[in-house]
Amino acid sequence: MKVRKKNGFTLVELSIVLIIIGLIIVAILRGQTLIENAKITRQIRDFQNISAAYYAYYDRYGFYPGDDSTASSRWPGEIDGNGNGLVESGEAPNVWSHLMRGGFVQGPKRGPYGGYLFGNMNFGDDFGVGNYVAATSIPGPVGERIDRKNDDGIYNRGLIQASASYTQDTVTLYWKL
Q: Is residue 92 part of a domain?
């Protein structure tokens, strides 16, 4: 009797292929998590670096950037603030210029969640937190992770606040300076 050889995969071979596919899927998912964690870390670092530049400017010149009432005497053509200690809405557009002129930041650069960082980061003294820097278009769950990691995790109180609940698709995140 002649034994007929069957073509196809054995159960062991199929099992090995499924295990390899599973490992590839796990690696891809883990890689996506690592990328998202890196973006969150970069956003936090951007907030911290801007905060450090903001206070270094104050240490050097005695005024907050944007609110500096002596900026035009230091840099001809620069716009002065009123020197009251608050970055008001009319002064907020001058913060980046003062920080760049003072050598504290370079720019513009892209933020981790789209747009240029200078265009996405705004300054002000409203929203009930005092002087702040804000980043727009932050995914809601990311905003919550940043808040939990650096503050209380509640969107409408603390040193980090959001424009809306973290269940929203995107929020503006306000970081108190």
A: yes
